[in-house]
Amino acid sequence: MGKAAEALKGRRGISRAAPLRLLPDLLAGLCLLLLGLAWLQIAGLMSRAVAVGSMMAYGALALLLLMRWSAPTGGFGWPNRVTLLRALPVCVLGGGLAQPELYREQGTLLAALAGAALLLDGLDGWLARRLDAATAFGARFDMELDAALILVLCLGLALSGKVGAWILAIGLMRYAFVAAGYWAPRLRQALPDSQRRKAVCVWQVLALLACLPGFVSGSLATGLAASALLALTVSFGLDVRWLLRRAR
Asked: What is the set of domains in the chain, with CATH numbers?
């Protein structure tokens, strides 16, 4: 009984200490974010409200990571560091929602930030395979960041008025699917790996990114966003059909 209690106490100690190993990486990410925001403000490209919003977004991300991190040994790891680096432009894009007109006035800059996040996507997975460091946490971190990037871009385009509010269906569809799984457990089954699903995800980001630059008209942006919504709807429909058929 005494040994069992000591073992349990040790596991609890590890569980409490594990998130603390993330602090150096989170602080490094914060420093990089502050440097980038300082440069953007000096260049007159962003307001203080956007900078504050970006830091709040990063703070929320850091809190979620500290709450969800559960590895008993080891640190954050290079694959997750790359994903964290990719999260920085997403935080700035999220901060831009505090000033929606920025999505019209500085659309090209925001498209460059979204492009940087897109270019880094895949590098974290490649590193995880290369270093044999793939984890369920890393895969979830990467997936949730992709979903957050898509939702933020949809919100920015809708709030700026460049595309109608219907564009939010693109960003919210994945969250609606997850919520539906609580009511229909059959939708919580694991889906097989799919190149079609990956291609649709990439097209969503590319289409939304292409909507941002100022030289892209509202009608062209609407067409691009509509194509992304159509592809996403078909993809989700195929996945739902597969899950329901498997359940039967």
From this structure: 7-247 (1.20.120)
